Hints:
This protein is α+β, with helices and mostly antiparallel strands. Helices cover 11% and strands 26% of the residues. The protein has 3 helices and 10 strands. The protein has helices at 2-15, 53-56, 181-189, and strands at residues 21-28, 33-38, 59-60, 94-96, 100-107, 128-134, 162-168, 204-209, 216-225, 243-252. The strands form 2 sheets. Strands 3, 4, 6, 7, 9 and 10 form a 6-stranded mixed sheet that branches. A hairpin with a 4-residue loop joins strand 1 and strand 2 (33-38).
Amino acid sequence: xxxxxxxxxxQSVTSLAHSWVEELTAIGRNGTQIGNAGFAxxxxxxxxxxxxxxxxxxxxxxxxRPVDVGILASDLxxxxxxxxxxxxxxxxxxxxxxxxxxxVFWYEENGHVTLPQIPVGKPLNRGTIYIYGxxxxxxxxxxxxxxxxxxxxxxxxxxxGKLLATFDFDDGYCYQINDGAISRSxxxxxxxxxxxPMGADRWCRNILSVPGDAQQMYTFYWVWDWLTAANVDxxxxxxxxxxxxxxxxxxxx
Length: 253
């Protein structure tokens, strides 16, 4: 039964879900949460009848494009549902007060950490998260003009944003409940009491220091770079670029 359960879970992971920022929380100097959680632009909660994984997934390059074409100069950083100011009243922006020192970006690992065999050719850290920030977001942000172009000093590319931090996708603690060895081990090491909105799974997190120059409405671009290496998957001899983005506005008050 264990082998069968793992097989079923592997199949569901490859066909179902990828990852995006589920919610954000602000943390104060004493390590506790300040205020309510906030959400990405155009967020659709998992409890919403309109929810599907595709609604929140912005994949570059899209699956409809030949693998060898890759990302185009015209590709936007944000999906059409995550354009500036597209914020639902039921999923508001995070409010960050002056007492906050950190912002936590929460996301599901969806088996990408705990079932590393599928798909083959992925990095050991399960990919790298890049978080970029700008005070001057536009609806025409081109992906190739930001990713690995904006730098920490703010002098890269068009200079209206910067790289704030990078993280391993696997934070070392998170897990999806499944029959994989990593999940079973982490369930014992890091028990999690099921509660909404996480449920039984333990979400991954990126903990970002509050940008010193952020004020009023500030925009974050969360980019998960999940490259498939060349010469591992026989169907992808040249490897594959696979990147997911979430676009987020936050109010600094």
